């Protein structure tokens, strides 16, 4: 009889898969961030214009290094957390493993599992976007410098600028990805031979990742634009209050209305091509690498 494995046994293979994915997808994520943050500007320009401006400020090395530390931390941590907590949450909520769940139960469990993820990555997310948009090189590619500056000038609540959008982004993609992954993986089996299991996982994960991008892109566009606008203003310390939380939501909604007024609904999908590529690629790599690393580590 096989020995029962610890609930923490999947952590090493999940971490290896998440770190590998974050490393390979970072350049695409950088371009996606530039595209989305430009949504609130009437002079956003083309993708090539944004890339030229970024290159003029940070050089070719910036495409691989600017904001890379907070991105590696954020991306690896959030993927580890979601893939670790999802099966545990599904089992706790519905009394059965996720492999026996329906699309609805998977979506609900994944949404709940994403709550601690969104809250805890928020400060890293603020640091990342500040570095990627740091044209004056004020922070010298130092995430700690960003956080210290925000704490000094805006207080700890400043680290949660744009939180509503972050949580919406994490919850919508996580729910859509896990709810649809089996469906897309099954579809891949209709044209990929059974002997190519890794290719089936890759194709199914890519489709599920892109499917999730359809739901979370508007929230991410609004969130990045909202953060860019607020961080460009003179810093003000706001003590925590219910009113501050409400204002965060209303500010998010107002930014969405501004983008729609300027560019129409399509403005909410600014940078969608890169975002779909990023999340589709991430979903594909995770769906392929995590099972691969589990086999290497001997984890069921």
Relevant terms:
globular, mainly alpha, 300 residues, 0% strand, single chain
What is the approximate shape?
Answer: globular
Low-confidence stretches: none
| Biggest beta-sheet profile | none
Bin the strand percentage.
Answer: under 5%
Return the average pLDDT rounded to an integer. 87
Our measurement of the CA-to-CA distance between the termini, rounded to an integer number of angstroms, reads 14 Å
How many H/I helices? 10
Tell me the Rg in angstroms: 20 Å
Strand-and-helix sequence, N→C? HHHHHHHHHH
Which bin fits the share of residues in helices? over 70%
Secondary structure tally: strands: 0
- Main structural class: mainly alpha
Describe this structure in words.
The protein is 74% helix and 0% strand. The chain is mainly alpha-helical and 300 residues long. The radius of gyration is 20 Å and the shape is globular. 48% of the residues are buried.
